[in-house]
Amino acid sequence: MAGIGGYNGWRWIFIVEGLVTVVVAMASKFLIVDWPETSKFLTAKERAFVLHRTGQDATEAKMDRLDQKSCRRILTDWKIYTGIIMYFGVVNTGYSTSFLTPTILKQLGWTAVRAQILTIPIYIVSCIITILVAYCSDRVRHRYGFTMLGILVATVGYAILLAQRHVPVVLRYVAVYLVTAGGYITQPVCLAWLSNNMSGHYKRSMGTAMQVGVGNLGGIVASTVYIPTQAPTFALGYGVSLGLLWLCGLACTGFCVGLWMENQKRERGERDDRYRLPTDELENLGDDHPSFRYVL
Fold first, then answer.
1. How far apart are CA 176 and CA 255, in angstroms?
2. Are the beta carbons of 127 and 184 closer than 8 angstroms?
C-alpha cells in the first residue's frame, strides 16, 4: 500500500490497525455482556455456577454500592497509588521495546526487513514466558517474587545494552529478549496483583482504571528518552528505563511489606472494631473488611 494516498507503507499499517481497533471497540459495546446473569451465551446452569463462584470469591468483603463513604475508601487507598507507581515503572519498558526493538535490531547491522522479521521470535518467547509465569503465580498464589524475577531478568538485558560497545552483536540481540521477557513477566503480574487485593465490583473497577490510566504515562517517558542523536547506544534511554524499572521494584517491595503488615494486624484482631460499624457500611467495606486477607 506504499504510495496510496501519498502515504508511506508504515503509515498505512497504523491506519489499518487503528481502524480495526475502532471497529472492534464499537462492536464490543454490544457483544460484551455486563453481568453473568444477563449473558445469553450461557445456559441457566452455567449462569448459576458463575454466580456461585463469584460469590465464593467475594465472601464478606463486598463493595457493590457506590456512595460517599465507599468513594472515600477508594480514593484514599494507598494500594491503588502504589499500584500506579508499580505500573508506571514497568510500562516504560513495555513501550520502549515496542517502539524501538526494530530500530535496535536494524542498528545492529541488519536490514529494516530482516530487523522486523527478527522481532517476531522475541514476542513469541515473551508470550510463552508470560503464560507460564501466570500459571505458576496462580498455582502458588504469590505475586511479589514473580514481579522481582521479571525486573532482574530485564535488568540483565539493560546492563548488556548499556555496555553494548564491549559485547558482540549476538549478545545484544539476546539482551533484547531479556528486556522484553522481563517486562512481560512483571507488567501483567502488577496488574493482577493490585486487582487481587481490591474486593468489590466498584473498587476493583475504579482502582484498575486508575492504575492503567495514570500508569500509562510511562509511555510518554519511553517516547522521549530515546534520542536519535544518541543512536545506537541510547545511553539515556536505557538508563532511564532501567531506573524506572527499579522504581517499580521498590514500589512492589513496599506494596508487599504493606500487605503483609496489614494481614498481621487482621490476624491479631486489630481491625475487628469494624464489625461494630452499621450493617449497611460493614457490608460495603470491600477489602477493608476484617475478614479479607491480602495476596502477597
1. 28
2. yes
Query: Are 27 and 19 a contacting pair, CB within 8 Å?
Result: no
Q: How far is CA 22 from CA 34, 67, 99, 155, 181, in A?
A: 20, 33, 21, 36, 28
Return the C-alpha cell found at 77. Answer: 487507598
pTM: 0.84
- Could you read off the pLDDT of 15-49 as tens digits, one per residue? 888 899 999 999 988 888 777 777 777 787 877 87
Quote the pLDDT of residue 55: 63
Question: Cell numbers 531479556 label which residue?
Answer: 178
Residues 193 and 164: beta-carbon distance below 8 Å: no
AA letter at 100:
L
3-state secondary structure the chain: CCCHHHCCHHHHHHHHHHHHHHHHHHHHHHHCCCCHHHCCCCCHHHHHHHHHHHHHHHCCCCCCCCCHHHHHHHHCCHHHHHHHHHHHHHHHHHHHHHHHHHHHHHHCCCCHHHHHHCCHHHHHHHHHHHHHHHHHHHHHCCCHHHHHHHHHHHHHHHHHHHCHHHCCHHHHHHHHHHHHHHHHHHHHHHHHHHHHCCCCHHHHHHHHHHHHHHHCCHHHHHHHHCCHHHCCCCHHHHHHHHHHHHHHHHHHHHHHHHHHHHHHHHHCCCCHHHHHCCHHHHCCCHHHCCCCCCCC
Q: Which pLDDT band holds residue 251 (cuts at 50, 70, 90)?
A: very high
State the Cα–Cα distance between residues 67 and 278, nearest whole angstrom. 14
Please tell me the distance from the alpha carbon of residue 188 to that of residue 267, in angstroms, as a whole number. 29
* Residue 231 CB-density burial (10 A; 0-12 exposed, 13-18 middle, 19+ buried): middle
Tell me phi and psi for residue 290, to 5 degrees. Answer: -60, -25
Whether 239 contacts 162, CB under 8 Å: yes
